[in-house]
Amino acid sequence: MVKIPRYQLWCYGIAAISVAIALLLTLLLEPLISSKIYALFYAAVAISTYYAGMRAGLLATLLSTLAIAYFFLPPVGSFAGMNLANLIQLGTFVLVTLLINSLNTALRDAKRRAETNLQKLQASEERYRVLAENVPQLVWFTRADGFVEYLNQRWYDCTGLTPDTSKGWEWQRAIHPDDLSETLRRWKTGLATGNPVEMQFRLKLGDGSYRWHITRAVPLRNSLGNIVNWFGTCTDIHDQKQAEAALEQQKQELTALVENSPDIIARFDQNLRHVYVCPTVEQATGMPPEAFLGMTNREMNFPEQICTLCDESLRQVFNTERGKTIEFEFSTPKGKRHYHCMLVPEFAPDGSVSSVLSIARDLTEYKQAEQERIRLLEALKSEQKLLQATIEQMPAGLIVVEAPSGGMLLANAQAQQILAGFSLNMERVADYVQPTHAAFYPDGRRYTAEEIPLARSLVSGEIVIAEEMEVLFPDGGRKTLLVDSRPICNAQRQIEAAIATFYDITERKQFEQALRHSEERFRQLVENLQDVFWISDPKQEQLIYVSPAYEKIWQRDCESLYANFTEWLEAIHPEDRERIRTVFYERALVGGYDVEYRVIRPDGTMRWIRDRA
Questions:
Q1: b/e per residue, 516-528, with b = 16+ CB within 10 A?
Q2: Secondary-structure percent of the chain, ordered helix, strand, coil, rounded to 5
């Protein structure tokens, strides 16, 4: 048995009731009207189709046809014996009702689609409104001509403006005056061309401060391609701008450090070509840095032995992604020099080695001292007494241990004095760290026995140069040691022993710290003086420093003076200005001056100034 859904039964019920009402009304009205009318049946079909759908309309058509044929067409009360004219009349009725059914069905479907689209539009508008009011950006809409019609609540919260002071073209009051002309130019260009707009400007906040924002706007077009609106957002990038400025400052400082370093710093690409060389290279080769760019060592006609060593080492760093240290001799305009070179991998975002940084340090003098130490060690067997005396008189602590155990061979008096309380009767590497003494890296990490420079030279043959160690003594005292160590090898390059020399640089480190504290106290003193303290470069017309007292006495901003070096001269009384200008630019460069003059402050008051430089 087929089960008919309740909704279809309801629809069919509407069709049956509509036809029944039409039939009843037609029967009641038939005695009053001479001609037969079927208008009420048309209405029944139309109502059924519009309110219950096509199936109900078809049912109403069928029922109406049967009712008309049975009750109104002769022979009345029977479906048999109808003539052709009645059949044509009945057929015409069916065709008209089918047309009515089709039109009403189309109208009903169109209404449903319109309602559905309206609901979707309302839902879309609500989603957009919720999104626009809750995103962290400032959101706005304009007409095609750029007239602002909508800004989200975050705009008003951020700027402190109202709709009346923001919509239309009133939003301009929130843009920094220095950025307004460029902002309007870009915006009007976008309006004229229809291209997306992106611009940066400083936006005035409700508290009066300014923050950098980036604005992006895109046109919204209709089906014909015509712009009907513009949609835009403003995103706060103030922190990013400050970070970029700080990064640029760090970059400049790093560039200054690299380009003034005594070391030769270079960068190689994966083809072993120079992509950067610092200016120091000219002192070692007689060639400017520009001559190296894009060239390999062989293309620079360097000695084959050096080219082979460097190329193999560079390829090893690229392949292993690990740094490497090499040493070589190179003939410079000043003669043959010995270089210690560190090769450091530089990684790309994908983790691969994109380039290798080379840092070559001239260790000629150090190598000469190192060779002298080796000579003393080689003479140890035959000239023990002389060597012992020399060692004992060295200003540095010296320790020699044998391989492979790491047992003590020699420790001079200076070593015992520096490491007071430390047992130098060491028999193995594990004894290099003792419970009574702790050794630390400059960053605070604690050394293990195997990480002690002497142990590294003994075990791996590493040459350690100028490594700082901080030693904690049982009484709580600390000493900073500057340690060098290297292996002692025989003719077969086998490690026979290892030697370490070290200096107590605690006082030097304390002095450096005291110097930093002194510089900080000096800065605090200068910034709290009631007089104006300044440092400038007259040749470059550049202000290097001016103390805050300038703002109190001159009643002008220090930052504006940094930007405009001659601002302080412009504030001098016209009768004194040329005299002071001449004194400043002529006498400041040959020995200083001591002058008096008047300045006129923004509030119109005048102050006498004594200026000594």
A1: eeeeeeeeeebee
A2: 45, 25, 30
Spell out the residues 6+ positions from residue 487 whose beta carbon is closer than 8 angstroms to its own. Answer: 403, 457, 458, 461, 462, 463, 495, 497, 498
Q: Extract the tokens encoding 364.
A: 């000629």
- For residues 496 and 391, state if they share a domain: yes
Which 3 state secondary structure label does DSSP give 16? helix
pTM of the model: 0.35
At residue 527 the predicted structure's pLDDT band, cuts being 50, 70 and 90, is: low
CATH code of the domain containing 297: 3.30.450.20
Task: Check: CB of residue 395 under 8 Å from CB of residue 369.
Answer: no
Give the span between the Cα atoms of 371 and 394, in whole angstroms.
16
Last residue of a domain, one of 330, 362, 394: 362
Question: Is there a domain that residue 456 lies in?
Answer: yes
- Cα 60-65-66 angle, rounded to 5 deg: 100
At 402, which helix (H) or strand (E)?
A: strand 397-402
Q: What is the pLDDT of residues 256-287, one digit of tens each?
A: 666 677 788 889 999 999 998 888 888 888 88
Question: What pLDDT, in 10s, does the model give residues 114-168?
Answer: 677 666 655 555 555 655 565 678 888 899 999 999 888 889 999 999 999 999 9
Closest CA to 394 of 419, 411, 375: 411
- Show the DSSP H helices in 499-554 as ranges: 506-528, 549-554
Query: Within the chain, what is the greatest distance between any pair of CA atoms?
Result: 155
- 156 and 231 share one domain: yes
Phi, psi of 467 (to 5 degrees): -95, 130
Residue 397 lies in a domain: yes
> Are the C-beta atoms of 368 and 380 separated by less than 8 Å?
no
Burial of 114 (0-12, 13-18, 19+ CB in 10 A): exposed
**Beta-carbon contacts of residue 197 (< 8 Å; ≥ 6 apart):** 186, 187, 189, 190, 215, 216, 217, 218, 232
How far is 576 from 562, CA to CA, in rounded Å? Answer: 22
- CA distances to 568, 576, 587, 589 from 582, rounded to whole Å, are 14, 10, 8, 11
Judged against a pLDDT cut of 70, whether residue 609 lies above it is answered with yes
Question: Is the domain of 506 the same as that of 394?
Answer: yes
The 10s digit of each residue's pLDDT in 332-375 is 888 888 888 999 999 988 989 999 988 888 888 777 777 777 77
**Among 454, 476, 510, where does a domain finish?**
510
- Please provide the size of the chain in residues: 613
Residue 116 lies in a domain: no
Q: Do residues 401 and 454 share a domain?
A: yes
Interval 413-427 mean pLDDT: 77
Residues 303/309/314/319 CA torsion (nearest 10 deg): 140
| Count: domains in the chain | 5
DSSP readout, 479-493?
EEEEEEEEEEE-TT-
> Would you tell me how many other CB atoms lie within 10 Å of the CB of residue 432?
24
Domain shared by 495 and 596, yes or no:
no
- Among 38-52, 240-254, 514-528, the minimum mean pLDDT is found in 514-528
Structural domain boundaries enclosing 334: 266-362
Indicate whether 127 belongs to any domain: no
Q: What is the DSSP letter of 379?
A: T
